[in-house]
Amino acid sequence: MDHTEALELIELAAAEPGGLERLMAGDTPEGGAVAGHLAGCPPCVAELTRVRRTAAVLLAVCSILSYLQAERWHDSVTLFRHALEVTENNSLAHKNLGAALAGQGKLAEALRHVTESLRIQPEPKEYVSQAWLYLQLGEHGKALQACRNSIAMSPADEKAHFLAGVSQVRLGDPRSAVREYQILRGLGSLYADRLLEVLKNSGVAVPLS
After folding, report:
1. Would residue 63 count as lying in a domain?
2. Among 4, 14, 2, CA closest to 83
């Protein structure tokens, strides 16, 4: 298991009640793999400690406020807004609030929180989220830069290469987009076909060899 995979499993576990405890019990293949990785990776141990602390804060906030003002917890946007009010430099809360706002179609506000999450804790997958939001808002150059930031941290991130190709098509750089397509083909990614469709719809001739 590599560094990125371990961090992703830790963050996914933190998103559900009791998830971290179940993961760290080590009685599942994923838990055993994470435990083995943590034994030799101090940065991941530090990230686990940070995530546990953040999760504990969020749990306390949820418990207290749900008891006192249950009517306020209508959705996750409210939850994570309150989390940001009572914590500082909380990248997880910014990330989750950004995702919730994006789900409501509030893309500009979502982008602000995703960008703040990245300022606190740069992560390749969150750069992909930032790129997607920039694309939806018509900021193609910024979307491409976000993809490059993601790829610099995780060179095989398929969605980052796909969104980079889409950005390049919209920026009028089909040659670079074709290179992204070729990278995706080399990775055996399903995103290769999706990017090929974008290229063809834009009138770009793509060599298949």
Report:
1. yes
2. 14
Domain annotation covers residue 31: yes
Instruction: Assess if residue 46 is contained within a domain.
Output: yes
pTM over 0.85: no
Domain carrying residue 23: 1-71
In a domain, 33, yes or no: yes
pLDDT tens per residue across span 26-45: 556 665 565 665 566 777 66
> How many structural domains are present in the chain?
1
Q: Report phi then psi at 156, rounded to 5.
A: -100, 15
